[in-house]
Amino acid sequence: VTPFLYSIHARAVASDCELPFLQPLAGATITPDLVLRLGSAASGETPGPLTRWYQSEPDEDGASIAIDRTPSNELVMSFADGTTFHVGAGVIRLLAAPPQYTSGDLAAYALGPVLALALHLAGATLLHASAVVLCGKAVLFAGPSGSGKSTMAAMLHNSGYPVLSDDLTEVSGESLSALPSLPALRLWPEAVAALYGAGAEFPDRAPSWDKKIVSTVREGMETRSYEIAAVLFLQPRIESGPRLERLDATEAWKRLIANSYTARLPDRSMSRSILDMTTALADRVAMYTFSAADLAAAGDAGAFLERSLAEHLR
Amino acid sequence: MQGSVRVVAGEDVLIRTVGDELVLLDLQKGVYYGLNATGARIWELLASGLSIDETIACLESEHHASRESLTRDVVDLIEELRERDLIAADES
């Protein structure tokens, strides 16, 4: 039974447990595009013998993510702490997790890297980027973890700009539009303190994770996609910022590939989709490196970007 | 490689034009290689089905460079791509 229905990444997602930081769709009777089964870890059976399909490079703590294939060509994604999900056609199912994990912890996994894999399986092309609406068009902020994608989106949200996505942005292949993801930003505590004051209280992203959740819903959630006007690759903040520098198409493409989700997964059709999306973006969309100002002087970032990117925002 | 040989891209190689470069992406190794305008033109001719000799002749008609230097450009590029398993001789 999956009684909770949500709009996530422009899809109807049904879940068997309430997702802690999202508003369910009230009274909706839509057939879901994706079903989340997070509430039955104990009964999760591994779907047959597995063969290793992909193993990520170890992170700074030596932890890596493994993805295995099942006999029916579905995937099993395993994290270093033992949390394991089965990603099948239209369904994400929890197989195992440490006993102390709450539904919030599991949702943080399921709606992050696991959902990214499920969306890829469904043919979506994703960038490691947040997206904000400026003058009716999407501006993407791309970069590796810790580069400030969510913080940049939160700064602009504070100035009244709608946020489309956080960390993971789906790009619609044909029109090069950015789709909405989740109505929330996940921020490190330092960013929350700098942007909202040291005493600001926000719910944890998940009890076992450090990031805080900031809702980005003002007057209803963003449900439509927006044409991408520019992609900005985040550089370290500088006191003399903000500063934008235009990239040529080839350099921009290399950075896009580096920031595309699962670009290294050994799946030819996925790789072809990502290659097509990134080459189209590099050819048709303006790309820059962007060094934001110090957080304390960040208030006018939106005005600076509107002014600097005016030719692309028309 | 003989001058009459035709070459094809490796099975795990995807090729796209990005800006002024031709990019060859090796899916197995997760590595890409960029060709400049000259390299891209050579690849374009080879990929259209011309043999190595036909490619050199075609370049000769397009450029003022000597046949010797054009031959060296083509052979060097083919050797480099072959060493990286990006191309193979067309067995068909």
Record the strand order, biggest sheet of chain A.
1-2-3-8-7-6-5-4
Residues in β-strands, percent of chain B:
25-35%
Which whole number gives the mean pLDDT of chain A?
84
Report the uncertain regions of chain B.
Answer: none
Structure description:
The complex is a heterodimer of chains A (314) and B (92). Chain A is α+β, with helices and mostly antiparallel strands and 314 residues long. Helix content of chain A is 24%, strand content 29%. Chain A has seven helices and 18 strands. An eight-stranded mixed β-sheet of chain A has the order 1-2-3-8-7-6-5-4, covered by helices on one side. In chain A, strand 9 and strand 10 form a beta hairpin. Chain A starts with a strand and ends with a helix. The mean pLDDT of chain A is 84. Chain B is of the alpha+beta class. Chain B has three helices and five strands. Chain B has helices spanning 37-47, 52-62, 67-83; strands spanning 7-9, 13-18, 21-26, 31-35, 87-89. In chain B, the strands form two sheets. In chain B, strands 2-3-4 form a three-stranded antiparallel β-sheet. In chain B, strands 1-5 form a two-stranded antiparallel sheet. In chain B, strand 2 and strand 3 (21-26) form a beta hairpin. The two termini of chain B are 16 Å apart. The interface between A and B is medium-sized, with 18 and 15 residues.
